[in-house]
# Entry
Amino acid sequence: MDQAWVKSRGGEFTGAGEFFGGTAATVGRQPLPGISAINCTEQLGVAGPWSERLAHFRLAFTPSNGEELQSEYHVPREHAVAAIEAMRTLSARIALLLVSEVRSIAADDLWLSPNSERAGVALHFTWKPEQAAVEALLPALEAALAPFAVRPHWSKLFQTDAVTLATSFPWLDDFRALADRLDPAGKFRNDFLERTVFGR
# Structure
């Protein structure tokens, strides 16, 4: 690890002194090495609305380097260390990685949230733009994380099937029932949703 981005409500973290052995940055940083931080959100303790600080990149600019693929898996917070250790067994194959992030996220009550009813840790991967190689790696990565009640990020690359997702997201059946009731003709569905959510 070479960076820790601390995002907090005003006054909760001053940014002064040490943070787990690291010292505060004196200039803005970009998650990817060697790239300017110009597109990143304000840093160095500059306060602002959460909608402009939660993301790493300014909304009007291209995020990251603009050409990578991403995956993200969420595990309960108590499984974070074991899940990271399991991923390290695949380090030779994860050479496709540009950068990764580990984020701690509070529990919520949203039906399809990866953190529904549990505090979690997000294990994020920004991949090189090699789609076939990334998709070939994902089943092994997901198998390594399976013992840790893993849930994928819905809008990033994953291979988990609808049957497994139904056991991972406790409110998925409720969402399916609501979708069937409000959209019986399936006008707001696509192939991805049919494969992952509805399993048809």
Observations:
- Strands lie at 18-19, 22-23, 69-76, 97-105, 120-127, 151-152.
- Residues 162 and 195 are 6 Å apart (CA to CA).
